[in-house]
Design brief:
Shape: globular
CATH superfamily: Alpha/Beta hydrolase fold, catalytic domain
Helix content: 25-40%
Number of strands: 9
Strand order of the largest sheet: 2-1-3-4-8-9
Radius of gyration: 18 Å
CATH class: Alpha Beta
CATH topology: Rossmann fold
Number of helices: 10
Length: 259
């Protein structure tokens, strides 16, 4: 009897949530990614309510260390999918470990130039269009950081999502520590610049506005872009389209790496 063929190794994919959120944002993507051969790991970043740590006591370096542990524990190079503000963390990981990061896909993410934080990058856009500030004008102070009111989350993050799912997501948002919301990261062409990048552009985004997404892609050229006609939370607004976009970008980078 012929021995069964060994299964192909599953590629590790690290899914990182943005500010005020948690690993739960990726629930709609797990089945499609698993069917495509990815062993996805959705992180809960420190201080987001899952680990009991006070948001104000958590630093960006805590986020880096937490994500790094997963990257270094994986059996091979890891793909990263980063939503919104998690793009800064993904860039830092790519800079620190270019040999361990197979690719980074930013989903309406902060793919910023080296040494520039998001508020600095956003400044000129807000000067010409105050709505470009996104969620910023709605934030309320909370112990150790900020929180997003339910109504603002519904309007800015989830305006095009099914209402029940949108309201449930808005109510799950937690306090975000100020140190981790929009840090400044330095990166180089020789390290992070060598890691393949993809970008999922959300054309109806009210948080990271499309014009800002386009400007980030122009400031860091080389990312392959897939465009979706949805708001800031494609995981809820367009889960199937997001799965298709992710697999398009992840597969393209994997094929390039094997040539």
């Amino acid at each position: 009897m012929r021995a069964p063929m060994p299964e192909a190794p599953r590629r590790t994919l690290l899914l990182i949530h943005g500010a005020w959120q948690g690993a739960w944002v990726w629930d709609s993507q797990s089945d499609a990614l698993a069917a495509a051969g990815f062993a996805s790991v959705a992180l809960d970043l420190p201080g987001n309510g899952a680990d009991g740590r006070a948001p104000g006591a958590v630093t960006f370096e805590d986020h880096v260390a937490h994500a790094r542990a997963t990257v270094l524990a994986a059996p091979g190079p890891v793909g990263i999918v980063a939503h919104s503000g998690a793009g800064v963390l993904a860039t830092r990981l790519a800079e620190d470990h270019p040999d361990r990061i197979a690719q980074v896909v930013y989903v309406a993410g902060m793919m910023l130039p080296s040494g520039v934080d998001f508020s600095e990058f956003l400044g000129p856009f807000v000067a010409s269009d105050p709505d470009a500030i996104g969620i910023g004008r709605h934030l309320l102070a909370a112990p150790g950081g900020s929180r997003v009111p339910e109504g603002a989350a519904m309007d800015i993050f989830y305006h095009d999502c099914p209402e029940d799912a949108a309201r449930a997501a808005a109510r799950r948002l937690t306090v975000q520590g100020e140190d981790v919301r929009a840090p400044r990261v330095f990166h180089t062409l020789a390290r992070a610049g060598q890691v393949p990048r993809g970008y999922v552009r959300c054309g109806a985004d009210r948080s990271v506005c499309p014009v800002v997404q386009d400007a980030m892609c122009a400031a860091r050229p080389g990312a392959r872009v897939v465009r979706l006609a949805c708001g800031h939370a494609p995981m809820l607004a367009a889960p199937n389209a997001l799965s298709d976009a992710l697999l398009t970008l992840l597969t393209a980078a994997t094929e390039r790496g094997s040539n």
